[in-house]
UniProtKB/TrEMBL annotation:
<comment type="function">
    <text>Catalyzes the attachment of glutamate to tRNA(Glu) in a two-step reaction: glutamate is first activated by ATP to form Glu-AMP and then transferred to the acceptor end of tRNA(Glu).</text>
</comment>
<feature type="domain" description="Aminoacyl-tRNA synthetase class I anticodon-binding">
    <location>
        <begin position="333"/>
        <end position="440"/>
    </location>
</feature>
<feature type="domain" description="Glutamyl/glutaminyl-tRNA synthetase class Ib catalytic">
    <location>
        <begin position="4"/>
        <end position="302"/>
    </location>
</feature>
<dbReference type="Pfam" id="PF00749">
    <property type="entry name" value="tRNA-synt_1c"/>
</dbReference>
<comment type="subunit">
    <text>Monomer.</text>
</comment>
<dbReference type="InterPro" id="IPR001412">
    <property type="entry name" value="aa-tRNA-synth_I_CS"/>
</dbReference>
<dbReference type="InterPro" id="IPR004527">
    <property type="entry name" value="Glu-tRNA-ligase_bac/mito"/>
</dbReference>
<keyword id="KW-0547">Nucleotide-binding</keyword>
<keyword id="KW-0648">Protein biosynthesis</keyword>
<keyword id="KW-0030">Aminoacyl-tRNA synthetase</keyword>
<dbReference type="InterPro" id="IPR008925">
    <property type="entry name" value="aa_tRNA-synth_I_cd-bd_sf"/>
</dbReference>
<dbReference type="Pfam" id="PF19269">
    <property type="entry name" value="Anticodon_2"/>
</dbReference>
<feature type="binding site">
    <location>
        <position position="242"/>
    </location>
    <ligand>
        <name>ATP</name>
    </ligand>
</feature>
<dbReference type="GO" id="GO:0005737">
    <property type="term" value="C:cytoplasm"/>
</dbReference>
<dbReference type="GO" id="GO:0004818">
    <property type="term" value="F:glutamate-tRNA ligase activity"/>
</dbReference>
<feature type="short sequence motif" description="'HIGH' region">
    <location>
        <begin position="8"/>
        <end position="18"/>
    </location>
</feature>
<keyword id="KW-0436">Ligase</keyword>
C-alpha cells in the first residue's frame, strides 16, 4: 500500500511553499489509493507550539486535505532513543565534544587551505581517558552519524537517477548536547515505523537524501522511494519562508480567496498543467503526474491568483454557493447566476446584490435628467421578461433619438449607480418595476 507523509514543523503558520508538498503528497496518495500521514515535526520544543500545530490542521482542512493519521514526534521519543542506542552499539553514532566556536575555526582553517570545510572526525581518535577528561571539564557530547563516504544512488520519481556522494559531506549531528534530536534521525525512524513508501518533498532536500538512505540502511529499514519537486517562489523569485514572514495560508483565507484557488496555485504552478478552474482536488489528482513537474523554479504570480479566483467564482453553481450566500441574504438562484460573473472574491456578492435588493445611489447627470424622466414614463408594465429591456430601449430610442452609449449609459447609471455590471436585460426582471421607478427621477 502507498503511504506518504507530510511533515511540517509547527513553528509558525504554513505558507504557499509549505502547501505545495502537502498537496503533492495528497494527490499522490489519492491517485494511488494510498494513505496520507500528517507528521508534526515538533521536536524543537523552544519554537514549536500546539497553537501552530492546530493552525496547520485548520489550514489543511481548509485546503481540502484530511489526513488518515496524525502523529507528533514529541510523543515518540522512546522510538528515537531506541534507534540512537542501536546506532551507538553498531559504532555508527559517536560522541563529539567540540564547541561551535571550535568547529567554526576549523572550517575557516580548512577553507583557507583550499580544503572542503567538512568535519575531520577528530572525535573518533579520542580515547576513553580523553572523553572522561572532557566530561570532567563539564563538556557534554553531541553525537554524529558516521557516514560510509560513498556514492549513494537512488531513482527520483521527478528528477530521475540521482547520486549523492557522502564522502564530500560532514558526518551529520543527530543528537544535540542536551540530548534532543535534530530532524534527521526522528524523520528516518518515523518513516520506518509508519511504513512510509514514498517521500515527496522539495528539491532542497536532495543532498539530505544520501545521508538518510545510509541511516535507513544502518537501522535495517526499507528505503522509501523519493520524489523531489521544484520549489515555489514568490513573484520576485524568492523562496517562501516562515522566518521572513511570507504570506500564510491563513492570510489568504482571511483575504477572501477560495481554498481551491490557493490549492491550484500552490500545486499546479511550475507544471505543464494549465492554471485553470479545476472542479476539485480530486480532479487535479487525476490529471497531475510527476512527469509534468518542471525542473525549473515555480514562480507564484499574485495577478494570476486573482484571475483564477474570479474564474472559480464565475463557474460556481448555485448549489455550491448557497450555504455561503445565506450570510449575505441571497437565496435566489437567478440572482447568483447573474451576479457571479462580476465577482473577484465571494464577499463581493454583498455589494453586487444591492443592485437587486437596494439600496442603490442613482447617478444622474443634469444633461440626462429630461431623458430619464421620459424613460420613467415609457417603463413597460409588468410582468417583465428578458425581452422587457429591449422593448423599453427601443421605445426610448424612437422617442429621444438617442442611441448607443448616450442611450444605455444614463439608464445603467440611474438603475445601478455604476458603469460596470451585469447585463441590464437580465437584471431588470430581478429588480422589478417599483424599484426601477424609485431609482429614476
Amino acid at each position: 500500500m502507498t503511504i506518504v507523509r507530510w511533515a511540517p514543523s509547527p513553528t509558525g503558520r504554513i505558507h504557499l511553499g509549505n502547501a505545495r508538498p502537502a498537496l503533492l503528497n495528497w494527490f499522490f496518495a489519492r491517485r494511488n489509493g494510498g494513505k496520507y500521514v500528517l507528521r508534526m515535526d515538533d521536536t524543537d520544543l523552544a519554537r514549536s507550539t500546539r497553537e501552530f500545530a492546530d493552525g496547520i490542521e485548520v489550514d489543511l482542512a481548509w485546503l481540502g486535505i484530511t489526513p488518515d493519521l496524525l502523529v507528533r514526534q514529541s510523543e515518540r521519543t522512546a522510538l528515537y532513543d531506541e534507534a540512537r542506542d542501536r546506532l551507538i552499539a553498531a559504532g555508527r553514532l559517536y560522541p563529539c565534544y567540540e564547541t561551535e566556536d571550535e568547529l567554526s575555526r576549523r572550517r575557516a582553517r580548512a577553507r583557507a587551505m583550499g580544503k572542503p570545510p567538512i568535519y575531520d572526525r577528530a572525535a573518533l581518535k579520542l580515547t576513553d581517558e580523553d572523553r572522561a577528561k572532557l566530561e570532567a571539564e563539564g563538556r557534554k557530547p553531541h553525537w554524529r552519524f558516521k557516514l560510509d563516504g560513498r556514492p549513494v544512488q537512488f531513482t527520483d520519481l521527478i528528477k530521475g537517477s540521482q547520486t549523492v556522494n557522502t564522502a564530500s559531506m560532514s558526518d551529520p549531528v543527530l543528537v544535540r548536547e542536551d540530548g534532543s534530536y535534530l530532524y534527521t534521525l526522528p524523520s528516518v525512524v518515523d518513516d520506518i515505523d509508519l511504513g512510509i513508501t514514498h517521500v515527496i518533498r522539495g528539491e532542497d532536500h536532495v543532498s539530505n537524501t544520501g545521508t538518510q538512505i545510509e541511516i535507513f540502511e544502518a537501522l535495517g529499514g526499507s528505503v522509501p522511494i523519493f520524489a523531489h519537486h521544484n520549489l515555489l517562489t514568490d513573484a520576485e523569485g524568492q523562496g517562501f519562508s516562515k522566518r521572513l514572514g511570507s504570506q500564510s495560508i491563513s492570510d489568504f483565507r482571511d483575504e477572501g480567496y477560495e481554498s481551491l484557488a490557493i490549492a491550484i496555485m500552490a500545486s499546479i504552478t511550475g507544471t505543464s498543467l494549465p492554471i485553470e478552474a479545476y472542479g476539485s482536488l480530486e480532479d487535479i489528482a487525476a490529471k497531475l503526474d510527476f512527469a509534468m513537474i518542471s525542473h525549473g523554479a515555480a514562480r507564484f504570480d499574485p495577478v494570476e491568483l486573482d484571475n483564477l479566483n474570479a474564474r472559480i467564482l464565475h463557474a460556481m453553481s448555485f448549489a455550491e454557493a448557497a450555504p455561503r450566500l445565506a450570510a449575505y441574504g441571497v437565496d435566489n438562484e437567478a440572482v447568483w447566476n447573474l451576479l457571479r460573473e462580476n465577482l473577484r472574491k465571494f464577499a463581493d456578492i454583498a455589494e453586487w446584490s444591492k443592485l437587486v435588493t437596494g439600496p442603490v445611489e442613482p447617478v444622474i447627470a443634469d444633461e440626462d435628467r429630461e431623458f430619464l424622466v421620459a424613460a420613467r414614463e415609457l417603463l413597460p408594465a409588468e410582468p417583465w421578461s428578458l425581452e422587457t429591456w429591449g422593448q423599453w430601449t427601443d421605445a426610448l430610442k424612437s422617442a429621444s433619438g438617442r442611441k448607443g452609449k448616450r442611450l444605455f449609459l444614463p439608464l445603467r447609471m440611474a438603475l445601478t449607480g455604476r458603469h460596470d455590471g451585469p447585463e441590464l436585460k437580465s437584471l431588470l426582471p430581478l429588480v422589478g418595476r417599483k424599484a426601477c421607478l424609485d431609482r429614476l427621477p
